[in-house]
């Protein structure tokens, strides 16, 4: 059973037809990259999957369960967690408080502590900064905190929206390494990226989205070798 199946999804914002029959699949254990230009519909796809926008047609199935019209908190509880663009950490709260907030649905305090400890083991930089205000972290550290906070909810599938945005190349590489590590621990990932090169380095497969539709799909190696992808998204090099 796939981790996620999106079938012929349509989203309208008033008169704007943002998704026009988009279909894609994320298999269990995969990192799938979703590439596309500004305005193609990448963020809308993630928002629809996490229940933040209501599709006008089509179906979203998470681990065999139809979640097309489920509420955002039900979707998080089911194990599908969205890390939005722009690393929205709570800047006046500490690193530790941000991680605790990620566990707001976790009733068992001992379990919450274990999950936060696991994030600190994975991300020792956050452990060193546990009492620091999140707003004073570097951009890369804030991105790692945003992902760490999502991990505290115990996801089976992570939706990551442009985790590389605004980060220096070396920092992008360490964020991508974190995504790979999280994936190797059994979490499937749908990764939206403008940075196609970085995304295709860690992804197993990918899709190209244009005008609200997937126009191309394949393994990461196939996409890296595709002339259209090279010309449009890999800088023509
Ligand atoms: P970017 O990389 O720039 O974030 P994207 O591929 O994520 O782009 P979306 O943000 O999903 O694209 O936008 C898809 C289309 O829907 C665009 O034409 C956009 O202007 C429109 N759109 C997105 N959000 C809204 C909204 N809240 N109201 C009206 N139109 C919207």
TrEMBL record:
Highest taxon, organism lineage: Bacteria
Tagged with keyword ATP-binding: yes
PROSITE patterns assigned: ABC_TRANSPORTER_1, ABC_TRANSPORTER_2
Residues of the ABC transporter domain: 4-236
Family annotation (CDD domains): ABC_TM1139_LivF_branched
GO molecular function, one term: branched-chain amino acid transmembrane transporter activity
InterPro entries: AAA+_ATPase, ABC_branched_ATPase_LivF/BraG, ABC_transporter-like_ATP-bd, ABC_transporter-like_CS, BCAA_Transport_ATP-bd_LivF, P-loop_NTPase
Keywords annotated in UniProt: Amino-acid transport, ATP-binding, Nucleotide-binding, Transport
Gene3D superfamilies assigned: P-loop containing nucleotide triphosphate hydrolases (3.40.50.300)
One Gene Ontology term from the biological process aspect of the record: L-amino acid transport
Family statement drawn from the similarity comment of this UniProt entry: Belongs to the ABC transporter superfamily.
PANTHER family: ABC TRANSPORTER ATP-BINDING PROTEIN (PTHR43820:SF6), HIGH-AFFINITY BRANCHED-CHAIN AMINO ACID TRANSPORT ATP-BINDING PROTEIN LIVF (PTHR43820)
Protein name: ABC transporter related protein
